[in-house]
């Protein structure tokens, strides 16, 4: 997967959609407006660029003050990020919040998946049941799920990983792939009898990891088994 190329495409799609969106429209699964979303994602882009340029962690706010219209802010922020990534040495060390990857390459992958999830958020303002972005291929979505476990679970404290109370299997319907999560949030090679299963396309599973698609059509994301296991997975303060 060429994360830089995929990021350029997903961020361009966000820019195109944002240009025609109502800045005051609410999002489906996040308590923000479209304007808030543009401020947040543009701010994340600029923060990531500073992590690369300065090499250390700069201060960050979730929703920064907009210094221009949402589309202008986002367009400028996208240019800052892509220009920084284009000229950076992907092997050079810099600040990341991954325990296993301290290279600038980390930010290619992280900003790709940040953008894919927020592209769905943007489209949810017009349609709470919007499908997963077509811009995210099965390969990209599967890597997004892997990244969730690599980075957000792998770098989290024990307190942020409540015991699930059983084994959870995430089953992709469009790929010969599943993820089996033990009660302690450790990925297992397999488990014949999970306590609960979430079944969906890879793209919908990626969004489900971030508690999106709550208004998905019946059957898009299927939950079976112990509801408590699934609820604890969704409520874990990892996101």
Outline the structure in words:
The chain is an alpha+beta fold and 239 residues long. It has 2 domains: 3-124, dinb family like domain (Four Helix Bundle (Hemerythrin (Met), subunit A)); 139-235, Nonspecific Lipid-transfer Protein, Chain A (2-Layer Sandwich), CATH 3.30.1050.10. Helices cover 46% and strands 9% of the residues. The chain has helices at 3-19, 34-54, 70-87, 105-124, 138-153, 202-209, 227-235, and strands at 168-172, 177-181, 187-188, 196-200, 222-225. A 5-stranded mixed sheet has the order 3-2-1-4-5. Helix 1 runs parallel beside helix 4 (105-124) and helix 2 (34-54) packs antiparallel against helix 4 (105-124). The mean pLDDT is 93. This is Maleylpyruvate isomerase. Residues 5-123 form the Mycothiol-dependent maleylpyruvate isomerase metal-binding domain.
Q: What's the SSE blueprint?
A:
Elements: H1 3-19, H2 34-54, H3 70-87, H4 105-124, H5 138-153, E1 168-172, E2 177-181, E3 187-188, E4 196-200, H6 202-209, E5 222-225, H7 227-235
Parallel strand pairs: 1-4
Antiparallel strand pairs: 1-2, 2-3, 4-5
Helix pairs in contact: 1-3, 1-4, 2-3, 2-4, 5-6
Give short descriptive properties of this protein.
239 residues, alpha+beta, Four Helix Bundle (Hemerythrin (Met), subunit A), Nonspecific Lipid-transfer Protein, Chain A, five-stranded mixed beta sheet, 5 strands, 9% strand, Maleylpyruvate isomerase, DinB/YfiT-like, metal ion binding
């Amino acid at each position: 997967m060429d994360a830089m190329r995929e990021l350029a495409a997903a961020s361009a799609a966000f820019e195109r959609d944002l240009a025609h969106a109502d800045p005051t429209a609410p999002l489906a699964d996040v308590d923000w407006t479209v304007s808030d979303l543009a401020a947040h994602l543009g701010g994340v882009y600029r923060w990531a660029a500073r992590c690369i340029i300065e090499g250390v962690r700069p201060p960050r706010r979730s929703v920064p003050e907009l210094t221009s219209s949402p589309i202008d802010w986002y367009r400028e922020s996208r240019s800052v990020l892509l220009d920084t990534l284009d000229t950076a040495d992907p092997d050079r060390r810099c600040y990341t919040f991954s325990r296993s990857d301290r290279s600038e390459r980390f930010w290619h992958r992280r900003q790709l998946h940040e953008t894919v999830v927020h592209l769905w958020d943007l489209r949810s303002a017009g349609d709470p049941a919007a499908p997963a972005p077509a811009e995210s291929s099965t390969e990209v979505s599967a890597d997004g799920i892997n990244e969730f476990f690599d980075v957000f679970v792998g770098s989290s404290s024990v307190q942020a990983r409540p015991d699930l109370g059983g084994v959870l299997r995430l089953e992709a319907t469009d790929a010969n792939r599943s993820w089996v999560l033990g009660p302690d949030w450790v990925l297992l090679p397999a488990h014949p009898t999970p306590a609960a299963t979430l079944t969906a396309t890879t793209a919908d599973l990626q969004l489900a990891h971030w508690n999106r698609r709550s208004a998905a059509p019946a059957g898009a994301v299927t939950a079976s088994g112990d509801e408590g296991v699934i609820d604890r997975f969704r409520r874990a303060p990892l996101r």
